[in-house]
Write a structure and sequence with these properties.
Blueprint: H1 14-28, E1 41-43, E2 48-50, H2 52-59, E3 67-69, H3 77-85, H4 88-95, H5 112-124, H6 135-138, E4 141-149, E5 156-164, E6 169-173, E7 183-186, E8 191-194, H7 196-199, E9 205-211, E10 214-221, H8 225-246, H9 252-255, E11 265-271, E12 281-288, E13 291-295, E14 305-308, E15 317-320, E16 333-338, E17 343-348, H10 351-366, H11 371-381
Antiparallel strand pairs: 1-2, 1-3, 4-5, 4-10, 5-6, 6-7, 8-9, 9-10, 11-12, 11-17, 12-13, 13-14, 15-16, 16-17
Pfam families: ArfGap, PH
GO molecular function: GTPase activator activity; phosphatidylinositol bisphosphate binding; phosphatidylinositol-3,4,5-trisphosphate binding; zinc ion binding
Protein name: ArfGAP with dual PH domains 1
């Protein structure tokens, strides 16, 4: 790529860098997951174009990255030449050459912590150019202290956590000198997702696992953002290595989407009971793959109830609205979930919330069921 000039021939004006940006965008669109199309900012020490959100993170590491506006700032000739000679594709080849397949690559919609630690790991610590720096999450064993929310009192207390791939489990202990763990979470049934708003801490992580085939939630955080993201990626690494053994013929592309999952939809809805004669009650709902769970409080350890959402071929449908005779709901925007056994009547406060829930539920219903999901469905049907 040659040195771009602005339409008036001035190399120092922002038009020169915009021309490089446009040329890069047209030829390398999508090279960098965090950069939106035609980003308006650039790091002139790294030679990459970035979005407004990420420019703030880059400004926090000035010893590594110095940022200018593509549209507003004055650019020196040497800076324009450097941008022309580099670009996001070259930076990616340099700084992402050894990203482990299990490491979570955030998108623009992910929480600030994941995006910041990705940028710091990539450029500041250069973990993906030097694999030996990946040991905190790739060693197969990790222990440390996290602040965990108490199941009954709601207080966050320091608890010792141990992750061991050899045992295929994550454990936590109520005391640092305890010989027996308070809980053992099998990697096979474990999920982790960042929930800063729900937990009330920018580093808040929700870990879920199955206990007697019911979902159990624990909520943790660490004051050090790197520490929390290292725990998250260590859990993903353990899941990855477990799945490699469980599905020996599967490719990385098949396994990576199964390492952790964000919830399809969360929020408050009203619901009524199975006889549909009692009043509607406000509950917090979480759509986790095919499990629709409802809680009295978003931070409850256990759900008040779980509903399996199967596929259309198995007799599941989602209907807009409620039956005409329905009474007792305060919110006007109804949803009816039809399962082979019964109908579930729900109500949303706003039309936009109803549309979001309808879309999430419809995606699940439209997706054919996997063989192992029929076993989960059978358990729900025979649940006491």
């Amino acid at each position: 790529m040659g040195l771009a000039r602005c339409p008036w021939g001035h190399s120092r004006c922002p038009g020169a860098v915009r021309a490089i940006n446009q040329e890069w965008s047209h030829s390398h669109r999508g090279c960098w997951r965090l950069a939106r199309a035609d980003p308006d900012w650039a790091s002139y020490t790294l030679g990459v174009f970035i979005c407004l959100s990420c420019s703030g993170i880059h400004r926090n590491i000035p010893h590594v990255s110095k940022v200018k506006s593509v549209r507003l700032d004055t650019w020196e000739d040497v800076q324009v030449e450097f941008m022309a000679s580099r670009g996001n594709a070259i930076a990616r080849a340099t700084f992402e050459s050894r990203v482990p397949p299990f490491y979570y690559r955030p998108s623009a919609s992910d929480c600030p912590l994941l995006r910041e630690q990705w940028i710091r790991a990539k450029y500041e610590r250069q973990e993906f150019a030097h694999p030996e720096r990946q040991e905190p999450y790739s060693a197969g064993y990790r222990e440390g202290f996290l602040w965990k929310r108490g199941r009954d009192n709601g207080q966050f207390l320091s608890r010792k956590f141990v992750l061991t791939e050899r045992e295929g489990a994550l454990k936590y202990f109520n005391r640092s000198d305890a010989k027996e763990p308070k809980a053992v979470m099998k990697i096979e049934h474990l999920n982790a997702t960042f929930q800063p708003a729900k937990i009330g801490h920018p580093h808040g992580l929700q870990v879920t696992y199955l206990k007697d085939n019911s979902t159990r939630n624990i909520f943790v955080y660490h004051e050090d953002g790197k520490e929390m993201v290292d725990w998250f990626n260590a859990l993903r690494a353990a899941r990855f290595h477990y799945l490699q053994v469980a599905f020996p013929g599967a490719s990385n592309a098949d396994l990576v989407p199964k390492l952790s999952r964000n919830y399809l939809q969360e929020g408050y809805m009203e619901k009524t009971g199975p006889k549909q004669t009692e009043g509607f009650r406000k509950r917090w709902f979480t759509m986790d793959d095919r499990r629709l769970m409802y809680f009295k409080d978003p931070l409850d350890a256990f759900a008040r109830g779980e509903v399996f959402i199967g596929s259309r071929e198995s007799g599941y449908t989602v209907l807009d609205g409620l039956p005409p005779s329905t009474q007792g709901h305060h919110w006007p925007h109804g949803i009816t979930i039809v399962t082979p056994e019964r109908r579930f009547l729900l109500a949303c406060e706003t039309e936009s919330e109803q549309r979001a829930w309808m879309e999430a539920l419809q995606k699940v219903v439209d997706r054919p069921m996997l063989p192992q999901e029929y076993a989960v469905e059978a358990h729900f049907k025979h649940k006491p």
